[in-house]
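COMPLEX REQUEST
Ligand: adenosine-5'-triphosphate
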Amino acid sequence: MAQVTNKDASVPTADLMDRIVSLCKRRGFIYQSSEIYGGINGFWDYGPLGVELKNNIKMLWWHAMTRLRDDVVGLDATIIMHPRIWKASGHVDTFSDPMVDCKKCKGRFRADQLAETPCPLKPSKTVAECDGEKTEPRPFNLMFKTTVGPIESEENVAYLRPETAQAIFAQFKTVLETARQKVPFGIAQIGKAFRNEVTPRNYTFRSREFEQMELEFFIRPDEAVEAIAGRVLEPDEIDLTDPRPDTTAWGWKAWLKYWVAQRMRWYESLGLPRAKLVEYWQKPDELAHYAKACVDILFKFPFGKRDASGELIGEELEGIAARSDFDLSQHQRFSGRPMTVFDEELKNAWGKLAPDKQSALRSRYRQSRLDYYLKAGEPPEKARALADADAEAFTKGYYIPHVIEPSAGVDRLALALICNAYDEDTAPDEHGNPEPRVVLRFQPRVAPVKVAVFPLLKNRPALVQKAREVYELLRPHMKAFYDDAGAIGRRYRRQDEAGTPYCVTIDFETLGEKAPELRDTVTVRERDSMRQDRVKISELVGYLLEKIR
Ligand code: ATP
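STATUS: Structure written out below.
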């Protein structure tokens, strides 16, 4: 049967999000948090299918980042940390959106969004045009505050982490000492983050509580690479198809390019098509002051900003930033603990360099440290002394590593996968007549349930018993679901809506009642093509594992 798919524009984009939100609730992907009390803006719960989807995302990220690599180790740090961490990271002073208050309606609005925000009193006008008097913009910090211990005082203030990354920097030395790694290497972490977003919106896209998957990949400063390898490779000189490249001559630009390629490949491996992904290189005026470059991976959700021709631009799934040695340097200054590493190869290479090369590299390294100290607000004389000391240490093999940070959101990816998978087409009902169906075309790897097992009829004990046996056979290997309620067509429809790629039906052939050669075989129905294969029960685990990998 010809399939009418979402890709053929059977679902108007304007409606698409409403249909997706309704499916997510109906099928148990995503619920509003605290719904029985009217909900709480910006917080979402994941139901039985949603939690499986999220777990798959996290597991696949963890595998790609840690299990399949020798050079990345994991960390699971606390959500509440010493408040000085957020002073050092800059979040206490600068992690804020400028806000204005309206004296008439008493609303508080983001200063940069006045022209897009409807006036609560006169919704036909925006806040920029209404006649309410506004205050000057004031910063509104996005961190959630709490107090630690029984006394609610200023000294006991702590914050719920607004990102997982800072814990990695704070534990950098401890991990380095215990994990037997050396630069270049990375530390990966998955966990909750909290931001008191001023305007949570677009469903789960901008939430106040969400999960991040972050990697801090520590690399040598370019001056060290040059001392060791003789020169730093340009990004177009590196071969991204080589599974085990020699990275000795890779500077931060090569590593950034490498990580962008790795991450794009990973998103494609989850079924997001290249055409819906955008690699956006931030312009110099968009960069955070410490970043040398930042590449956002955008996904074309059914919502979001559009270009002049009305095309969706895409919204951020992940940011990959070259953050220099800023974060570790900050923690070194604020904690008083050294964040330097000793690099034996640098020390050995240094001794063999010609004096003019030594002096050129030393002075470049000194300059970059001086720039950092001056930007960080150290008085010039002290900054010069600190930079001199760092440059001297550098010549003996010591430096603060630089970092490339791929930082992704679990919730945004879950939403992207659902939006991408959503489709409507037609499928035959039990009489063979076409009827509309909603189907989530998940890549099997991310699908919450991999296989559903049905006895053809619920009231035949021999069918039910065999179906339970098949279910027990499959469940240790993959997320399986047993269903005997309702007509078989209805059961298929339910699994299509859940995005289950395979349904296994136990029928009278399985019992050998029709043809002896079909005894102990089952029907395996594939979600997208609706093709049915006859498979021996003894071969079923292997057959399915091959397809869901
Ligand atoms: P945005 O510009 O959309 O606010 P950001 O640039 O502040 O995002 P980062 O600080 O780079 O985001 O965080 C890394 C990732 O964490 C983002 O790419 C996104 O996937 C996720 N993330 C950040 N804020 C939120 C949020 N409020 N809700 C859900 N996910 C988020």
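REMARKS: Residues 1-80+149-339+400-441 form a domain with the BirA Bifunctional Protein; domain 2 fold (CATH 3.30.930.10). Residues 163, 195, 197, 206-207, 210, 212, 316-319, 407-409, 411-412 surround adenosine-5'-triphosphate (CB under 6 Å).
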